[in-house]
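Still learning. Any example?
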Amino acid sequence: MSGEGSYHPSQDQLEIVGAVDDALVELLPLARLHQSAEETADVWTQLDGLGAFGISLAEEAGGSALGAAEEALIVLALGRRLASPTVLATIAAAHVVPAELRTGAAGTARVVGAYRRGDQVVVIGDPDAQLVLLRDGAGAALHRLDGPNAELDSRNWVARLQGVSKLGEPLARFDEAGLLRLRLLDAAALAGVAQAALEMGVEYAQMREQFGRPIGSQQAIKHHCANMAIQARCARDQVSFAAVALDQGRADAAISVESAFLIASTAAIENAGKNIQIHGGIGFSDEADPHLLVKRAQLLTAVAGGVEAATERLADLPSVA
């Protein structure tokens, strides 16, 4: 980072992330989600080759020793391609996974996301997962997953949710700094979903014709696309700003991260909804892609604790002079 006055990632950081993003275009096509909810073993191996599972780990631990800015923008790129929740949870958990379980993607224990709903723990299923990253109120911890995991719907990426009454003692807990980093990555993934919805909506508006003209020439569609562009840009900028604040240890880092999650989750949900409207009736069909974005935005927001909890955390933070 080029000094205390920086508010955005540097050009070098953007180039690193850009190289990863280019590789994800062919690696994670949206069409794959109609066949399976989880990524294939080959995808996991290739993501490991890109360094996805050790972005910010020290080099002696097998990582790339990059900062929050690079990690957040790479997760944003993964969110834009709707990388599976298990991939995202495994990346997020890398900060607390015990060393003996961290041996490269082929040997690293997969981590599923989970959150508490009432007196039950809801686990987002992956039959090959061994660990659970559980969000419980304002905290988060890593647990070993014992017993059968949730089954997956092979026709879609959506996991069937299975409640489990309890988990064993945590292997590790996220401290205050770890929770901020976790919420930053939540925000980044959701900002990626917001961007994906914008791109899908604009592409369809340019391609779909009505009365001999692209529907994107209609004022109502233009307004939707413009609003989606603003939402996606605000989400991305706030995520990158928050990541820089974390890297620099600034006093406003907590407010920036919580704001990033609030803005990104709202952008993802609203953009995904507007994308459905642009697509019309086909947007609701199982064969099309728009509904995938709606479900993913809702799921990632729920796993992260929801929008209401984020607003409460923001309200409780002390003001920064």
